[in-house]
């Protein structure tokens, strides 16, 4: 692959693998939309993934840390449940969604708004390589076609068209993710939106979708229920001592090391060591010094008990 061209390889449109509308291999959900691409170019060997079940997760390129956390968690948990996760390989929510699916050694499809041989944005070249190896990259544009602003709304109809459900994580007032949601609604597919702070510009689009009738997404189980999938998870890893105390606090809300030390009474080195334990167990994630729980509170009994024990020890019975 040439670093300067941004292209994956050299074959032209006539020799590049593709699926043609009207053939048995062409994905049936995509064929059913109003304006399906006549030809779908593919990069990667796992074309069976186009048969789904697929869920699109889309959102803002310049997402918040919270939005990135939600997107990655959704990608990971959907993929772990056997869902094919679809997104657009863009920065922000798209990239985090793909990464989450790959972390779960699950399936993900990236839909490009440029030639199928392009790694766009170039910063996602390594991510595109992993998706090609473990999932699939598709585009209606033949090799060599440059990215252009008008191609991305057209790309979004494919993202929605491949998917039974579309989830919007964060979106500004005129975000392209809202175009994807509109395409999904037009095709009678389910749309979920992650509720956001009413003071944040990144929540204007998602909150408007909810006001217009989209279902608020409160957990991945909302999507799995819509698909008729019963998630049977292994219980989360058990932790004890300082790690259990910290996880109980993180279930209440995200926090930095200093806040956790004050709230638990643990020394800073103990907090740091316990956070490493939680991250290695997959129970917490950290970014830019802020840590969040990676599992739902109701799934952790011992950690809640640890918090309750500390509350009782204060003698006031309040949190």
Protein model, in words:
- The strands form two sheets. The chain has a nine-stranded mixed beta sheet with strand order 1-2-6-5-4-3-7-8-9, sandwiched between helices. It has a two-stranded antiparallel ribbon with strand order 10-11.
- The model is unreliable at 1-9 and 296-319 (pLDDT under 50).
- The protein starts with 17 loop residues before the first strand and ends in a 5-residue tail after the last helix.
- It has helices at residues 28-31, 65-80, 93-103, 125-134, 151-161, 176-186, 204-212, 220-227, 241-252, 257-264, 268-280, 301-314; strands at 18-20, 39-43, 54-58, 84-87, 108-111, 136-139, 165-168, 190-193, 215-216, 284-287, 290-293.
- It has two domains: 18-227, Rossmann fold (3-Layer(aba) Sandwich); 241-308, Arc Repressor Mutant, subunit A.
- Helix 7 (204-212) links the parallel strand 8 (190-193) and strand 9 (215-216).
- The chain is built from twelve helices and eleven strands.
- It is 40% helix and 13% strand.
- By secondary structure, it is α/β, with parallel strands linked by helices.
- The protein is globular.
């Amino acid at each position: 692959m040439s670093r300067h061209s941004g292209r994956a390889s050299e074959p032209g449109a006539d020799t590049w693998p593709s699926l043609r509308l009207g053939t048995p291999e062409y994905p049936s959900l995509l064929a059913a939309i109003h304006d399906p691409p006549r030809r779908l170019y593919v990069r990667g060997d796992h074309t069976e993934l186009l048969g789904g079940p697929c869920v699109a997760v889309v959102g803002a390129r310049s997402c918040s840390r919270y939005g990135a956390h939600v997107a990655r968690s959704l990608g990971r948990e959907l993929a772990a449940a056997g869902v094919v996760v679809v997104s657009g390989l863009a920065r922000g929510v798209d990239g985090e969604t793909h990464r989450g699916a790959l972390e779960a050694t699950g399936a993900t499809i990236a839909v490009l708004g440029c030639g199928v041989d392009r790694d766009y944005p170039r910063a996602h070249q390594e991510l595109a390589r992993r998706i090609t190896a473990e999932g699939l990259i598709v585009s209606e544009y033949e090799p060599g076609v440059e990215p252009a602003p008008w191609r991305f709304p057209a790309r979004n109809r494919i993202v929605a068209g491949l998917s039974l459900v579309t989830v919007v994580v964060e979106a500004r007032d005129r975000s392209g993710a809202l175009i994807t949601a509109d395409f999904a609604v037009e095709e009678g597919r389910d749309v979920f939106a992650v509720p956001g702070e009413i003071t944040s510009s990144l929540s204007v689009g998602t909150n408007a979708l909810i006001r217009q009738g989209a279902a608020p997404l409160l957990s991945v189980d909302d999507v799995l229920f819509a698909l008729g999938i019963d998630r049977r998870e292994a219980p989360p890893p058990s932790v004890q001592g300082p790690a259990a105390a910290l996880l109980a606090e993180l279930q209440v809300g995200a926090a930095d090391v200093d806040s956790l030390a004050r709230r638990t009474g643990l020394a800073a080195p103990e907090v740091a060591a316990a956070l490493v334990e939680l991250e290695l167990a997959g129970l917490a994630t950290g970014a830019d010094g802020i840590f969040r729980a990676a599992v739902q509170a109701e799934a952790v009994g011992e950690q809640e008990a640890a918090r309750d024990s500390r509350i009782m020890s204060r003698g006031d019975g309040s949190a």
